[in-house]
């Protein structure tokens, strides 16, 4: 994945007030921030909050207009972005799957390389979970159980077969040498109902103990956990010395041909917006840990995710 980010050049030109970068009038119209999901929920709420805060950080007092374009597993919104003029006035707020998984199937109208990273804000924690009243209380007990009962641990994900939740759970199973049985669901509400009703043994999703729920994590497959102290004693795969790990990032990307100086302006505005009270309140409400990354670092995170997903998907026979 190639990124066209020249931080030093852009910073120098803007600082000295000379040359084509300083003379450029950007943004010259409202920024369209595509959210490839329906209205409501964490991603949409965060996109709207960060957009409002970033407006005050942009030159020319231009607005940022959030436009929901759901459908196609979030690929419709990304397709619209890659087909827009690559002038920096159209960008996308997304989570990982439509960028680092869906293009690997070869059925999207874009590839990962059609985009460049701008700003990452946070990662969504996810864990292998059981019901709070399960006889399995710890990771060690879970591992012993799944080794003794191959294929009997049924776990659900809300993204279906080949989703990020499915792939990350199977990457862990492959490293541990155990067999799990995946049950796909269409949404998180149905998934939660099924584990609470005993139709499945577990899930791979964000647990809900910090909200007073009854879904308890055994091990986090992400390096981040919700900030609540209730999770302090729950290990991550990294804590256990395992290689299996996934980053479900949330952030902003844009067309690969957006000029570097415009990427820098956008990144500066969104990074500053993370400090706004409204955005900070969302971090607290959802127990998320802010984890900013700029274009270069975010781009490497995307590259790493694609490589890991591709290897696991080939092992599962999802792609050739």
Question: Short summary of the structure?
Answer:
This protein has helices at residues 7-16, 19-23, 41-55, 75-82, 97-100, 139-148, 164-176, 188-196, 260-273, 277-285, 295-315, and strands spanning 31-35, 64-68, 90-95, 115-123, 127-131, 154-157, 181-184, 202-205, 215-220, 249-255, 290-293. The protein has 320 residues and is of the alpha/beta class.
Strands side by side in the biggest sheet: 2-1-3-10-4-11
Quickly give the CATH architecture of the largest domain. Answer: 3-Layer(aba) Sandwich
Measured on Cα atoms, how large is the radius of gyration?
20 Å
Give the strand tally: 11
Number of helices, where a helix is a run of at least 4 consecutive DSSP H or I residues: 11
Strand content: 15-25%
Largest pleated sheet: 6 strands, mixed
The CATH superfamily of the largest domain is Bordetella uptake gene, domain 1
Tell me the structural class: alpha/beta
């Amino acid at each position: 994945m190639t990124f066209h980010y020249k931080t030093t050049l852009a910073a120098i030109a803007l600082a000295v007030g000379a040359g084509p970068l300083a003379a450029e009038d950007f943004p010259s119209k409202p920024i369209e921030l595509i959210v490839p999901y329906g209205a409501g929920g964490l991603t949409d709420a965060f996109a709207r909050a960060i957009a409002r805060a970033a407006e005050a950080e942009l030159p020319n007092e231009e607005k940022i207009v959030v436009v929901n374009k759901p459908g196609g597993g979030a690929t419709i919104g990304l397709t619209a972005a890659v087909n827009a003029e690559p002038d920096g006035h159209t960008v996308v707020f997304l989570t990982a799957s439509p960028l680092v998984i869906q293009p690997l199937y070869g059925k999207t109208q874009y590839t990962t390389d059609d985009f460049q990273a701008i700003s990452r804000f946070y990662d969504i924690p996810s864990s292998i979970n059981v019901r709070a009243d399960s006889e399995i209380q710890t990771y060690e007990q879970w591992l012993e159980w799944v080794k003794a009962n191959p294929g009997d641990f049924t776990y659900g994900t809300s993204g279906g077969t080949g989703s990020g939740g499915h792939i990350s759970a199977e990457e862990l199973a492959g490293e541990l040498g155990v067999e799990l049985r995946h049950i796909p669901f269409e949404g998180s509400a149905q998934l939660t109902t099924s584990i609470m009703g005993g139709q499945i043994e577990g899930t791979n999703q964000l647990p809900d103990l910090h909200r007073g729920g009854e879904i308890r994590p055994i091990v986090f497959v992400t390096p981040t956990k919700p900030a609540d102290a209730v999770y302090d004693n729950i290990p991550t795969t990294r804590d256990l010395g395992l290689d299996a790990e996934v980053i479900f990032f949330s952030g902003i990307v844009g067309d690969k041909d957006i000029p570097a100086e415009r990427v820098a302006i956008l990144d500066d505005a969104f990074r500053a917006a993370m400090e706004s009270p409204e955005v900070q309140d969302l971090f607290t409400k959802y127990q998320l840990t802010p984890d900013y990354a700029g274009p270069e670092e975010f781009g490497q995170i995307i590259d790493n995710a694609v490589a890991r997903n591709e290897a696991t998907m080939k092992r599962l026979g999802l792609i050739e």
